[in-house]
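Each record in this resource describes a single protein on a pair of labelled lines. The shape at a given residue is found from the number at the same position. The record below illustrates this layout:

***
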Amino acid sequence: MTVTSKFNRLRTIITPIMLVVWLGAIACLIAFLSLQEVNTGEVDSIFKTPIYATVVLLGIIIGSVYHYLKICQTIQIDTSGLKISSIFKAQFIPWKEIFEINLITKDHTTISPTDATIIQLKNGKQLAIVGIYYENMADIRRTLAQVMEHINAREPIAIDRMEKYGTIGQVNISKMTKYSGNHFLSFNGLVLYIWIALSFYLLMTTPLDSSISVLATLLVLLGISGLFYGFLGLQLHFFYVDKNYLVIRNHVWPWKKHVYGIDDIKQVIVETPYKKSTSLRVITKDYDSMLYSAGSLRSSDWKNLLQKLKHLHVDIINETVF
């Protein structure tokens, strides 16, 4: 049996393309304005224009494309070893060359420490499999866990399909302890609601001379509001806990609800991701890993939540000051 990685399309395709298009558009605009200044006689040399910014942006675009092509590695795992390949190179690592596999750890080569699996080789080198780039990271971890069990037991390598835990049905949260804070007074909540109020005010008070102007203004405000709603809403989770379940809800996404059985949780990690609110990462015993940013919780809420989970014998890693 062979397990092959599947790319997370948002992280490895959509985001890089949007970044390149955005930077490319800015570079083209600066180049156009620079050439226009020369053609109109405002300056007598292209080198007296902001054309340098275009060169810098092109360098950033090339560097970004190279970075994403390098990190987008296809991973194949079978009984003989591990094959890792990208557009630049491919390498095969037999199991006998692997010294240790840290299934749940952090990769520190990025701007912010990122959830990853680190493979230590006997020659001293290490390989990082960064979780956010793969849709089936849990499958990869489950497979590597099987392999390590066979290696440690000095048995022939065998890879069997491992079933995931089933979905938990309806849970009554009325008697569960809630850890949420006041999202209206949190940074994310304030920014979101102030922007919505400001957008409504601008739409109502800005004089518009045609239906096209109204439509264009509405589309721009809706587009920006959508980005605010998505990014800030992503950081407004809160939690319910009792002796059996951990339930995650969201203040502004009422349809979102994740339920974990306490006995199914392998580990929780309190993290402070780069430019995001303090977050709770939940890792199940079948190696599913999800990050829930919770910007509405105050320090006291986090302390109470962690104390409750510790009382329930949940393994906790606290990377913050709480």
Notes: The chain has three domains: 1-162, 177-183+236-318, 187-233. The chain has a mean pLDDT of 87. The first strand starts at residue 3 and ends at 4. The helical segments are 9-39, 51-71, 137-152, 187-205, 211-233, 299-311.
